[in-house]
Every structure is written in C-alpha cells, then in structure tokens.
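Q: What would this chain look like folded?
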Amino acid sequence: MAYATVTLYAQPYDITATGFYFKTYEEYEEKVAALKNEAGLPVEEFEIQFVDGDNVEARFAKAVGLNQVNVEKFLECVEDWGGDEMIRAILMLEDGFVGFDENSEPSDFEDIDVYEDMTMEDLAEHFVDEGLFGDIPEAIAGYLDYEKIARDLSMDYSETTVDGRQFIYRWC
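A: My prediction, written as structure tokens:
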C-alpha cells in the first residue's frame, strides 16, 4: 500500500543505533526489524518525527501526537482522508474534544461546526442573514451592532488558522 507524500523519521531512543527515514508503514516495519544497536540487539523504541509533507499533514501529525503506537493509523489517514477531514480532526484534537487511536475515523470528527474564511463579525452577519435571531426588519437591521454580536459569539466559538486558512469553529 503506497501512502501519501509524507516523510517520517524514526529516531531510536537507543543512542548506539542510527535512525531511518520512511514513507510507508511497511517500510517502517522492515527497517525496524533489520535495525540493531552496537551490541547487535534489536532496537524497539523510537521517537517518530514528521520530516516532510504539506502544512495540514504536519499540523495533523502534531495534533495526533505522532508516535510509534499511532504511526500506522496516521499514515493510513494521510492517504485516505481528505484535507477537510484532517482539518476537522485537527480542530477537535487540539482542543481536546476527542482522542486519536487505531479506530479513529472521519465520522469521529463530525461534532463540530466549522466556518472557513470568516471573522467573528462575518459570522455574526451570516447568522443574522440566515435568521438565527428571527426576522429582523430591514429598517432595523442597519442598526445592529455586529461587533457586539461577534463578541458574544466568541464565547462559544474559537478561531484558528490552519495552512493559512482562517477557521471559526465550535463543538456541537
């Protein structure tokens, strides 16, 4: 199975062994099986480091706490999940809403409202336009203080930037 274009590095905790780069879990397993320390003993514990990939994949690696236990699932997700699915996971994982393990699926990261490329004021205007605050006559709409509405929304919504894209989100 070929994985996406991420490159990872397995840094042994054993200082007498040399680490290695890998792109697939199969490659990782082969290199782990072949690696011996100076005494000729197998090396079993590694720090997994993200070396190369796009910004979303790098942030996803950090959010999942990439390590030797979840490296297989991480590589599977990078290959199978879309960028939007990884972004939803990043937002929820970084805020501690959910955990990440070998059973994680995109559906685990759906309980979040996400708005892209908006400020809090934009979101306030969007909610007014959508009727979230009921029918507001046009004559009154011009007098609404969207800055105050935005400040109230910031109590329930968070803002972040992922790969240069602005997101506003909240846990459902």
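The chain is about 35% helix and 20% strand.
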